[in-house]
Amino acid sequence: MKLRFLSIIILLLLFSCKEDGKEINSSTPASNEKANTNNEIQTNNLKDELPEGFNQDTLKTEALFTAGGFDDKLYYELLIETHLCNPNYTDTTSDGSTPCSSRFFNFYPYNHKRKIDDAFLLQIKAGVNKYPYRRLLVFVREKGKLILMNGIVGYLVERISRPNEIDDLIVAVFDDLGNDKFDRYDVLLRYKDGKYHFVEAIGDLKGKFETADLKKRASKAIQERINEKELIF
Q: For every residue of 132-170, which 3-state class applies, written as one string?
């Protein structure tokens, strides 16, 4: 517990120092302060208000990739459409591309009002296309074309049902601290106005944030860290 409080304090001190630096440096764009304010407003607008009698279902996700192939050719077609894999890949391919295989990609639904080929989560294995970390990409089809709605440096942990039939997501966000040191932030994302947004942090590598005060302080520091490094985009 002491280690956790120390980690949160260090994060808060980091961003406290950064804010002090902004006050000293007159060249800091005012838009940064506006962006922070907008993030706070957006988070406030995402507070949970479930209708009476609504029972939420939570689906835990195992971040696994399989060698047995997809159970529907539709997934191969969707992968090709994303341009994230090489449909002509062979054992002699040496251009750094990745085969369109379930060994590297996995699909999940998130919008239950639309078919999977019109709205899906794509989990991508670390190392694909020379990117060192796992990624979770959120796609939606608009006017017949797949559009990248969100991206997360990390992986899907849970999907939680919502009255609007668009799942909340618990994602593990991966943060490379340098010098072979890493952190992970478990955060809640919620869909609003055509995109997923940060709601709160619920834990880190040491476990869940058990108290409301710790969760509030950690959420603020972690959201700033995520925005700074563009770990959710």
A: CCCEEEEEEEECCEEEEEEEEEEEEEEEECCCCCECEEE
Domain spans, the chain: 2-229
For the question of whether the overall pTM of this predicted structure is more than 0.85, the answer is: no
DSSP 46-71: T---PPTTPPP-EEE------SS--S
SS3 105: strand
Backbone angles phi, psi at 150, to 5 degrees: -145, 160
Q: How confident is the model at residue 21 (pLDDT cuts 50, 70, 90)?
A: very low
Nearest by Cα to 167 from 133, 124, 138, 141: 138
pLDDT tens for 111-121 read 999 999 999 99
